[in-house]
Amino acid sequence: MFFMANTKGSDLLVDVLVDWGVQNVYGLPGDSIDTTVDALRRQQKKIKFTQVRHEEVAALAAAAEAKYTGKLGVCLSIGGPGAIHLLNGLYDAKMDHVPVLALLGQVTSASLNEGYFQEVNTAKLFDDVAVFNRTISAVDNLPEVVDEAVRSAYENKGVAVLTIPDDIPEQKMQGEYKSSARAFALATPEVAKQQVEQAAQLLKAAQKPIVLLGVGAKQAGSQIREFVEKNNLPFIETLPAKGTIADDHPNSLGQVGKLGTKPAYEAMHNADLLLLLGTNYPYLPYLPAKGQAKCIQVDLKAENLGKRYGVDVAIQGDTAKVIAALNAQGSLHADKNFLAACQKSMSNWNKWMAGKRKLNTAPASPESMVAYIDETAPDDIVYSIDVGTSTSWAARFLHVKESQKFAISSWLGTMGCGLPGAIAGQLAYPKRRVLTLNGDGAFAMVMQDFVTAVKYKLPIICIVINNQKLAFIEYEQQSAGQLNYQIDLADVDYAKFAEACGGVGITVKSNDEFKAALDQAYTIKDKPILINAYVKDDAPLPGKIVMDEAKGYMKFGQEYLENYWKIPELPPLKDILRQFF
């Protein structure tokens, strides 16, 4: 698209965003960014500006939109305090490797470097979080730099930051500029036939192969499903990749790690071949022991190859292309013994989980609550999961389908990501139902933006798991052998809060009440619904309790007895034993 001379800088900026297909910008207006906001007003039929109540929410929403859609998320703020508020959400985007553009206001060019009101050195402040970090110096290069920033965000799967002095958007460009949006396309390395053959030979020779899928495999779900079925391979998905292949697939072992399943842990520690597809999984104790297994790794980033586990075949490339090349070779692994053993172990795990899914208590059991969400969710639901015990219950009791969307803050693990993610999900997919699962601690960090969902009539279903404590921290302290301290939270009537915002609020105190409330929530389509669910203090035990955690629990019990002269309340012994042995 050509941008003509004599056009205001603010309009040029918005024109470039429109040309790149940006449909939404999250932020708050303010003095040093108002000229850009005014241009968004003039072009509101082409691009939507979503006003939030806190800039952190703007950045978290932009990151979530990028996770759901694979397209650029955009947020803006004034300079100084507003820009600083963006940082948490931008780090979430950086660490989860999604493209986001942040537009920052700044004092006028004439006032720069004079210690003016709200002047912050944004170039220095955002240096670590950004893959592209520029201050616009003249209106004539504004569209070019915006264009370059977007390309960089896509190419590097990260955050591009533009600082815009307040006077420049008011000026008019003298020359012309042609956007690169229509011509832009990312290329991936070609698959080396020799490496594909080496991988095939390792797979043929393996007796106990296991596949671990990451977000880099998300676009290759159908090819990988064919691959694991054709070759009798059990597979595990990292939590952010949940739903790449449906969780109820017979070859699935769920997730691995503290939030994973015991069968996944056991399979990893018996495997003789590890296939890492699009993942940089960091938790080494949950991978095969060093030197135990051969390893095939596929990743677009060469720096990830061999970073976590000694690799025998390191393929820099697109997972879909590599797996397609392997599928073209037919069946490479006919032995079903290891898969059958994993499936038997998973069957036993599922029988145990089935009992948890049927719990009917007052206060409510979160396991059964999330199981009911799973059972009633539409095939195209969009999940936004917050950080804490809500992550644990979602990992274990949501069977995400390939047609559903699922997003979390996976690498930064920032509390408060659930509601912003739901807002972004509903704006990106207006015809789909969106559900966010939050602990009361996490929700309280961003609760003011429930009113944003009300303002834009977004019928998100917001579930608050209310146990009046930082429950995940409680168990972290215990497993480290520490006495619990400052984990209790004052109770808030979140249902009344939702009503005060103009939404629907429902308080529930049993599993039966929760089921009725969720059924009601699905009938409401013009405003957000919040279910304030008072729950039992159920421990989200790891799928497999490792020795260090067992020692920590023993130390905690001893410390508790010595300090309080009584035995602490712990999860049922049968649950602990089942997950330890």
TrEMBL record:
UniProt-recorded name of the protein: Pyruvate oxidase
Any matching Pfam family: TPP_enzyme_M
Keyword Membrane in record: no
Family: Belongs to the TPP enzyme family.
InterPro entries in the record: DHS-like_NAD/FAD-binding_dom, POXB-like, THDP-binding, Thiamin_PyroP_enz_cen_dom, Thiamin_PyroP_enz_TPP-bd_dom, TPP-bd_CS, TPP_enzyme_TPP-bd, TPP_POXB-like
Alphabetically ordered keywords of this record: Pyruvate, Thiamine pyrophosphate
Cross-referenced PANTHER family: PYRUVATE DEHYDROGENASE [UBIQUINONE]
